[in-house]
Design brief:
Layout (H helix, E strand, L loop, with lengths): L3 E4 L14 H15 L6 E7 L2 H14 L4 E5 L13 H10 L4 E5 L7 H11 L4 E4 L16 H9 L6 E4 L7 H12 L16 E4 L4 E4 L8 E3 L4 H11 L4 E5 L3 H10 L6 E5 L3 H10 L5 E2 L7 H11 L2 E2 L1
Parallel strand pairs: 1-2, 2-3, 3-4, 4-5, 5-6, 9-10, 10-11, 12-13
Antiparallel strand pairs: 7-8
């Protein structure tokens, strides 16, 4: 059996929703990775995340401080978004871009509610999909959860047709549920799943809460500078930009702070621009989505490729 180093949420909200700084979160997760990996972990499992930015912090900590495979699963509500508003498409595009080895869903819902979430994940990601749903809903009278082991296993086995490759159970599941699940999926032909076709001319980007799709000739409009009016400038640009993209310039470290404070307003595809490599990396590290580079800056190709590998930067 393989042993996973399990990493859950810190318990504090990150800026700007809360007071925890992004790099503080990365350092907290780093402590967990540096403790767990030498203890003999075979892989890292980041789970029960409701904040895409916190999931990014944990993924960065895992990738920067170990060479182990990393699975990241988010927790969604019935409306199809996490508590903080992230949808499966944004999670899929962002986490795959940052090097997750598998992505998926855990907790909050039962297996019956999984299909629409799984379809959205497989639509925008080529990674293996992992699911660990609850055993339905808890009985208010304390009699356990409302889905039996047999019902749980049967519903889960049906999801192989949607492309799920990794299976487990969260709240309310027992050893009996997992044993029944294993027996059910062992009888399934996983090769029957046909991945959805993707249009090569449509390039996916993502903010924290919205997926956006651009083409190589996208018009980013006028460059937005990180002034005290950045929030208003972002809202105005998105209201008046039918092409669905905007471009923000980072000239110095002060711009990074301004960008970090106001990036939550970005919903369209984001082009980041700077002529300083260190500033671009810091901006990508802070950005809670997947940005793109329009090729107008004079940065070395090797550096841009590294940014694409580490942070999912889309290179046009």
């Amino acid at each position: 059996a393989l042993v996973a180093l399990d990493i859950g949420p810190i318990g504090q909200l990150l800026e700007p929703t809360g007071s925890l700084r992004f790099e503080e979160a990365v350092n907290i997760f780093k402590e967990v990775v540096l403790a767990g990996v030498p203890a003999g972990a075979d892989l890292v499992l980041i789970e029960t995340m409701t904040d895409l930015q916190e999931a990014r912090a944990a993924l960065l900590a895992a990738k920067e401080n170990s060479s182990l495979p990393v699975i990241v699963t988010m927790t969604y509500e019935e409306r199809g978004r996490t508590f903080l508003g992230c949808d499966p498409a944004s999670a899929a595009l962002t986490l795959e871009g940052m090097g997750a080895d598998a992505i998926g869903v855990n907790c909050s819902l039962g297996p019956r509610e999984m299909p629409p979430l799984v379809r959205e994940l497989t639509r925008w990601s080529t990674l293996p999909i992992a699911i660990k749903p609850n055993a339905g809903l808890p009985d208010p009278g304390g009699a356990g959860y409302d889905i039996t082991a047999e019902e749980f296993a049967g519903s889960m086995a049906e999801l192989t047709g949607l492309g799920v490759k990794l299976y487990g159970g969260c709240c309310g599941t027992t050893a009996e549920h997992v044993a029944a699940l294993r027996a059910a999926v062992e009888a399934v032909d996983f090769s029957a799943f046909v991945p959805p076709r993707r249009d090569p001319d449509v390039i996916p980007c993502a903010s924290e809460k919205e997926a956006r799709f651009i083409t190589p000739d996208i018009d980013v409009g006028e460059t937005i500078e990180c002034t005290s009016d950045l929030l208003e400038d972002i809202l105005e640009a998105e209201e008046n930009a039918p092409q669905g993209a905007l471009k923000i310039a980072i000239y110095d470290e002060d711009d990074l702070y301004t960008f970090a404070e106001n990036q939550y307003a970005v919903k369209d595809a984001l082009c980041l621009w700077t002529d300083v490599p260190e500033l671009l990396e810091q901006a990508l590290r802070l950005y809670q989505g997947r940005a793109f580079w329009d090729g107008t800056g004079e940065l070395e190709a090797a550096f841009l490729q590294e940014m694409a590998r580490k942070y999912g930067l889309v290179l046009l």
